[in-house]
Specification:
By secondary structure, the protein is an alpha/beta fold. Helices cover 26% and strands 25% of the residues. The protein folds into 2 domains: 56 residues, Urease, subunit C, domain 1 (Roll), CATH 2.30.40; 131 residues, Alpha-Beta Barrel (TIM Barrel). A hairpin with a 4-residue loop joins strand 1 and strand 2.
């Protein structure tokens, strides 16, 4: 081997050595993002203390103490902040085609740490396909639905949720079965007629769809329960809530409890 060839090989070796040394930190960066020293709250793992959280892609790669900052491409100091899995809002109205008092989920949810929202009956079985196409499929926020027992769902300036002719347990349960990963329950509310007539078809739809319970009991939800008609004492809503928690019937032996949403 000539002296010239030997010198070229030495220069090439030195060049590669320098660049590999410069690239070494990049190769050692295991994580895309590292949240340092945040107070981690995770009910699933019973975690409630200060930890580091490392993220690779869209996955939590590691949760531990003192993960070296050099292992991440980006480091965020979360000292004094809470770090938790995405929150779930159990009561929102996000079907914006239905009524004015609705909000597109991405406008309000993600900025507040909420990654999943449950629409509380804005849509019924007649309007769900439009709800899915216009909102659910276009939202980065995960949207689940409590399907209104009234086929048209909620409408501004309408007595529609008292329309007993539009309460179809069979059609409602069929829509629940069609989208079991999106529709998580059946909802009734704003029923303005005497009695609990609206509750019966809602419970029947739940039974046909295989949802839990014939009467309001543990595992079912009462949201914004309040005094409704003027023919009942003020103490009744509290009694209905208490009986629902115990899985029994409300005062007077009627199945279920009055539910109101806004």
């Amino acid at each position: 081997m000539s002296k010239r060839t030997t010198n070229v090989m030495k220069l090439l070796s030195a060049f590669l050595g320098v660049h590999l040394w410069l690239l070494a930190p990049a190769f050692s960066q295991t994580y895309d993002l590292l949240l340092k020293s945040g107070h981690v709250i995770d009910p699933a793992t019973d975690t409630d203390r200060v930890l580091d959280v490392a993220v690779t892609g869209n996955k939590i790669a590691r949760v531990a103490q003192d993960i070296p900052a050099g292992q991440a491409k980006k480091v965020v100091d979360a000292t004094g902040l809470y770090v938790s899995p995405g929150l779930v809002d159990l009561h929102m109205h996000v079907y914006t085609h239905a009524r004015e008092s609705t909000l597109f989920p991405d406008s309000v949810a993600l900025i507040a740490g909420t990654t999943t929202v449950c629409d509380a009956g804005t849509s019924g079985w007649r309007t769900f396909e439009d709800f899915k196409a216009s909102i659910i499929d276009k939202s980065a926020t995960r949207v689940l639905s409590f399907l209104n027992i009234v086929g048209q769902g909620m409408r501004d300036g309408s007595q529609g949720e008292s329309n007993e002719q539009d309460m179809d347990p069979a059609a409602t349960s069929a829509k629940v079965k069609q989208y079991p990963n999106i529709i998580v329950g059946v909802k009734t509310a704003h029923y303005r007629n005497p009695g609990f007539t609206a509750l019966k078809p809602a419970l029947e739809a739940g039974r046909l769809a295989g949802l839990p319970g014939r009467h309001l009991r543990k595992g079912q939800a009462v949201s914004e329960h309040r005094r409704g008609r003027q023919d009942r004492p003020r103490s009744q809503p509290r009694l209905y809530r208490a009986e629902a928690r115990r899985g029994g019937r409300p005062p007077g032996g009627r199945p279920g409890a009055r539910r109101q949403h806004h």
